[in-house]
Amino acid sequence: MIDSNLKESLSIKEIFENYHDWYSIFEVVHKRQRVGSVNNSIKFYIYTEKESKHHAAHLHANYQNKWIVINLKNYSIMKGNLPLKKQREALKWVKNNSKLIEEKWDEFNKGKILPII
User: Which of the residues 32, 73, 86, 107 could staple to 112 if both were Cys, CB 3.0 to 4.6 A apart?
Assistant: First the structure.
């Protein structure tokens, strides 16, 4: 927070430059893109992390504060706590939309699309 006495003596340009310096310290650590949903209940996302390589292509499925991570090569559940019924629904959706997911994974991890944050 800029002191009010200091704020009065700074120009708009100086305030912006000061803000910009601090903003760069708190850069976005990861980005995500929603790639689909099952009846708008289970939502599927691809995440990318700054300066991190994803080793296995995978997808995150979220439902009511529960989640799983699905391996896109063999459709196994890597980790998570989604109820079994919702896991089955999620896996079915992923298998039925594997081409779309693969395209989105490649685009997002190569920086070809603007992610939804």
Answer: 107
